[in-house]
Amino acid sequence: MTVVRRLAQAALAPVVAVVIALLISALVMLAIGVDPLDALRVMVDFGDEPSQQITALVVVLNRAVPLFLAGLAVAIAFRAGLFNIGVEGQYRMATIVTAGVGAAVVLPGPLHLLLMVVVAMAVAAIWAGIVAVLKVTRGVSEVISSIMLNFIALGTASFLLTGPLRGSEPGASIITSKDIPESGWMPSLNGLFDVLGLANPPRQLYGFLVVAVVVGVLVSVLLKRTRFGFDLRASGLSPSAASASGVDARGMVVKTMLLSGAVAGLIGMPDLLGRDHNYGTEFTSGLGFLGIAVALLGRNSPIGIALGALLFAFLDRAAVPLQIAQIPSSVVTIIQGTIVLAVVVANEVARRLTRRQAERGSAVAPPSTGNGSPGGGRGPDGGSPPDDGPGGGNGPGMATVSGAGGRRGEQQGAPA
Amino acid sequence: MDESAPLAVELRGITKRFPGVVANSDIELRVRRGEVHAIVGENGAGKSTLMKTLYGMHRPDEGEILLDGKPVTFRSPSDAIAAGVGMVHQHFMLADNFTVLENVVLGSEPTRGVRLDRAAARRRIREISDSYALGLDPDTLVEDLGVGDRQRVEIAKVLYRGARTLILDEPTAVLVPQEVDELFGNLAELKREGLTVIFISHKLDEVRKVADSITVIRRGTTVGTADPRTTTARQLAEMMVGAELPTPATRASTVREAPVLRLSGVTVAAVDGRRVVDDVSFTVHEGEVVGIAGVEGNGQAELVDAIMGLRPLVAGTLLLGADDVTHWSTRQRREGGIGFIPEDRHRQGMLLDAPLWENRVLGHQTRPPVARGSFIDRKGARADTERIMREYDVRAPGPDTLAVALSGGNQQKLIVGREMSAAPRLLIAAHPTRGVDVGAQSAIWELLKDARAEGMGIVLISADLDELIGLSDTLRVMLRGRVVAALDPARLTPEELGTHMTGAAHPAGIA
Fold first, then answer.
1. Minimal CA separation from A79 to chain B, in Å
2. Does B231 touch chain A (CB under 8 A)?
3. CA-to-CA distance for B464 and B468, rounded, in angstroms?
């Protein structure tokens, strides 16, 4: 009951935000001469045939998996009060190196996959670790250094792709790395559709979906249940209180960035291991930045991020059908953009409302805990506040400085 | 005063409700022109709410406000300022890197064309400063000013805007006794010029010294007025709390032989190399309360940080019992038996946006009952939070309430309860009763006394001189980072202690 209520409360802000964003997007569409209802119809139309519908679903899920991982990577840092804007560079570095390593070795299937996943996580973690080291040793803001490292990562990736790791013919319009041998391909989950008795679509549902779910659960447990997670969240809620409680602030920055980076390293894996089997100029880009949006949308909670990733994936899928229907596919970008803006605003409004509600709550706190808290909620009759009620003025961060509470009168006689 | 003259400020039947609670009910206040009128009451009695009403920060649900006999309605503080009512807040709202002039004119700048007319502003500020003897130099940077001067800048700000009635919210809370006397001198000047001062306080002897008349507020309503010349502090106090008053005084000494904390030559440097804590040495024994007195900003906060391992030492050693903890991390020190009640509970003591049970975990992440191996024991933490709420009278709906929902007193009781739960050998208590109401204050004092009797060593830092003198077994005075005096609290008045704190007793600044 309370859990349901809490979930509903947590979901309220993003849901309201999405609705508002859709309304704003509708206005924009009207302004550029697109019928919003038309666009909506195209977006939700998954096709008539069951196989078409399942295919659309697979497309959405396949897109959602990397988005989810990206959101998770960003959220881990966010929870510790760090803004890892460098997820983009971290996963691109990880993917190109992993593609190179994966193509260079031949191992039995599971080991090959495991090696590549470990390499990806390690490379991205090291890349994110640079940010952490700069921050703790030189005080460089992680926002600045991670943006800078994005450029370095993209440049390095291009160099590796055109130089040492080049696998495509010289002169080919699309440059790719060498293909990873089949032992390093992630099996798809399409068998699932046969088990469920659904039409087996031509598209492959990424096997990495399972990995993503496992990672999501692990991160959730880590953040919520462990001492490390507590220290991490405490650092995000109040760095000063966290240090006073014994959290090593520097160590926490390093650990958090390594963890965030490690998860970021996985972002490229679904596409690399499940579809492309090489890294090339056409490889999915921009996931790191979308991850920030998804993390915001999901309020940094793994379940919220999963929902946010699905929403963004659903919108992304609509781009092609929209173009076919002669509607500019930038409608999708507009909707995503307004959603992010609306969510940021809504989250802040929700945060303030919760706080104010909580503060009001103190005014109506029952006089003592053992005293029937459900019935509580009113001050004593006669209109006087509980003696330590806020008197309407105890805002956050407003510790009322006070000295002796009138004891002087008793301690000393008449003043000089 | 002429009885027929209209009152400068009159509040009739003011009632202000917040959801579920009535903060002010049927308040009556009559302030004559040209007097200092004190409003006294406990923390949480509704003084601030009332003054916010008068200053236009919110509107009353019932009742009316009359200025000079005419009813007025304030929609915002700017309406109040326009009507000549100004407020000097308890927490200064000054930009440190601006000059006095810039701070005073900020928000109502005199302009010539589009430029700030510094000459006009300077003239006006000089005028105000001279006529009320504020002694302000318009071109000093505020960051170079002491607390008393900053307060005078705040007063000048209000006067600059043409206020005829000044509300001072707990103006003496941040001042040492000598500065309080200066403030009272300024108030006398204001009064002489015909201005009206409403003075909010709960320090009764100060009120009796400065006020011409007194209104007492208890539990949201006015319980009466008093004439400071004929009313004793005791009578006032009884009106205020309606009960016997608590005292901080401790019982017989419980100091034992064994030292729990030994500081020798502890030195802490600021970023610029200045020694903010300079060669401090003292010992805390079991069952002893060592009080650290000093005007705020003389190294007490840094000393606390040094003991807690939040700041590195440039010299000196720290011994906790027999262990040299100089190079231990904060967590090791906490595990080694140091409890910590921080000076600023919002900054260092709590996670405001986290539930109470998570706040129970804070600082004790590695120890039962809130941790089990590498995991947080959520059930254990919730149960222990409930125990603390029960035993330490923390008034909150339950362990899942957000910490921000609690009043300052309840937050502090939770922190005290949390730190006591780990049965520390040594407790660092920085301003343990700051910003809490009288009830919580006496509860916290009792807890400290009990802990002391059981053999806990306590380092007590406080700005409340009565608290320091009453609770401490020995007192050290800090001035500019150094311990300049070791005093016996048994034979010491707050005034003497204040003299030591300002350095007046030590011209050379050396103990």
1. 13
2. no
3. 6
